[in-house]
User: Fold these one by one.
Assistant:
Number 1:
Amino acid sequence: MSNTFLYYISQILLILKKESLPNLYIHDDDKSGGVIVNIKWIKNHHKR
């Protein structure tokens, strides 16, 4: 994965967070360039 790809994904996730997923925790770590998403919340959300 390239940093650009991760950047676009992080931007999409941030938009989703602002618009429809207020309970989704997204942490953008500038040091590693990675995006950590609360996968547990996503799994629980899709089970409903």
Note: The CA atoms of residues 6 and 12 lie 10 Å apart.
Number 2:
Amino acid sequence: MKYRLQCQPTYSAVEVDLEPGERVVAESGAMAWMSSNITTETAARGGMLAGLKRKLLSGESFFQNTYCAEGSPGQVAFAPGSPGHIVAHSLAGGELYLEKGAYLASTEGIACDTKFDGLKGFFNEGLFVLRVTGQGTLFFNGYGDIQEVEVDGQYTVDNGYAVAWEPSLQYELSRGRKIRSFLFSDQLLLRFSGRGRVWVQSRSPQSLASWAHPFRPTDSRRSGGGGKILIALVLLMVLFCGCCGCGGILMALMGLGGEGQGGGPAEFSRPSEENEFQFEAPEAPDSAAREATPPRSFADALKQLERLGSGGGNSPSALNERSWEVVQSPYGDPEAYAQALADALKAVRGSREDRNIVNTYGVALYRVGAYEAARLTFERNLQRWDDPLGGQSVYDRVFLAMAYSQLGDQENADEALHIVLQTIEREGLAEEAAAMVRPSELLLFVAEAQYTVGSAAGFESH
């Protein structure tokens, strides 16, 4: 197999020449361009357990793609998601350790697994690194340029700049001793000892993430309540003013009135008559609950703020969270599922426009065995919020696949699960889930769906 590293070092790509029948494996989403005779097979390489382990423990993709030239020679090119250098490293029965996100592609003889760092990796992004073994060529990438360093003795690298190192090196991760390091978390150090090579990058993804963090959206799939800083401001307002009038005004301006205050929207198109649940208008809050009395202590102010801001433990968001904590597991107690269904129904009645709450209700229906009602709920959610495949709709579709399967509709079950797998690959939901979902949660649902539906661990496309 021949390859060419192009556009080095800033926006690198590697182009691989494949002979007929020759294959190369790459990280999901890494393919940049390829000739028409290249076929692609997408699968959780090594099986479902290996895919989950690779994703949840080392941060790599759940799925990997295998590219093969059919009939005649072909070319396929791979590029990493971040701008930077690519290194081609030859392994002859040895091994190499990679930081999360560094793996790009490899020949078929290369195997990737996770390695537990123990407590020496306690302060790192995770307790696991990627262990690459076998015989062949490995392509790994960094953010910025990559420098190879020969270590003979002691060598220290900032945690965010390490890319790869040889197993002959011993290492430990520790904090810098300066107060500034403790306050700003910019001195987590990898201390290498021994003889071997370490590859470092000229830029740090963690530093970029810290710089960009204030500008990122704060939405998540399971949103609930306002920000802690805003709540603290309101609390200070309550304490200093000696009454909750100003705090209530400030909360209203910030949009922290809570779903439990003032009721939900009055209009909603009713679901199909086949569905078991019916939405009802939420009851208006008791007038006495609206009356604000000055807090007598800090504890009183905090309780009053929680009551006003969240609507209490029976607000739609609180009910939804309580239900979700139960129904997300397939191993729950039947009585717990029944209570979770009751909580989910109350949440739906109080907040009908929240697709996450409706999704939780559908999952609760599925857990208690009401598969037809669950199917109708998920289908309506997908029809009503007709957004591009990805993000929140994956939650509806993965449980819809299981509902189809339980109802004996294997064709639709296979199709729904197929769409889920394609969406995860295309949208990168298994990477960071578009900052909207928790990857471990989603991938466990996919594993449950694959077991329930009985589909193969992967699919083929051309």
Note: DSSP finds 14 helices and 16 strands in the chain.
